[in-house]
Amino acid sequence: MTHLDALRFARRVFADHTALQLATIDRWIADEERREAEQRTGRERRPAPPEWLLEPGLNRDAPAVYVHRGGCWNVGGRSHGIDHAGARRALADGVPACPHCRPDAALGYLDG
User: Fold this and answer.
1) pLDDT per residue over 26-65, tens digit each?
2) Are strands 80-82 and 66-69 parallel, antiparallel or unpaired?
3) Which helix (H) or strand (E) holds 67?
4) CA–CA–CA angle 86, 69, 72 (5° rounding)
5) Contact at 8 Å (CB) between 83 and 77?
6) pLDDT above 60: residue 70
7) Residue 112 clears pLDDT 60, i.e. is over it
8) Does pLDDT of 86 surpass 80?
9) Is 93:54 a contact under the CB 8 Å cutoff?
10) Residue 107: how many CB atoms within 10 A of its CB?
11) With contact defined as beta carbons under 8 Å apart, do 81 and 70 qualify?
12) Which of 24, 28, 66, 93 is the most buried (most CB within 10 A)?
């Protein structure tokens, strides 16, 4: 084998190896584009957060703890969304309004 033959062989090996590496990187790019598209679709399909929340007591028989505005930083993990009428009804039934987000003021419902 001549020096020129060895160089041509080295070029073929390098070209084949580079092609394999590029194919691998192209797969990684396609996978990442697919993940980003799935995340974008998930964000677009996510339902809007509830406007009002009811934070239940610690057990089934305990009274509700607070009525919150949606997005309140003080919401407990067990809270669930309620509609406008449900929030007003809970306040009328004696469930306290969260002192931080003040849903009673937002709903125009003040004791007295």
Assistant:
1) 999 999 999 999 999 999 999 888 999 999 988 888 889 9
2) unpaired
3) strand 66-69
4) 145
5) no
6) yes
7) no
8) yes
9) no
10) 18
11) yes
12) 66
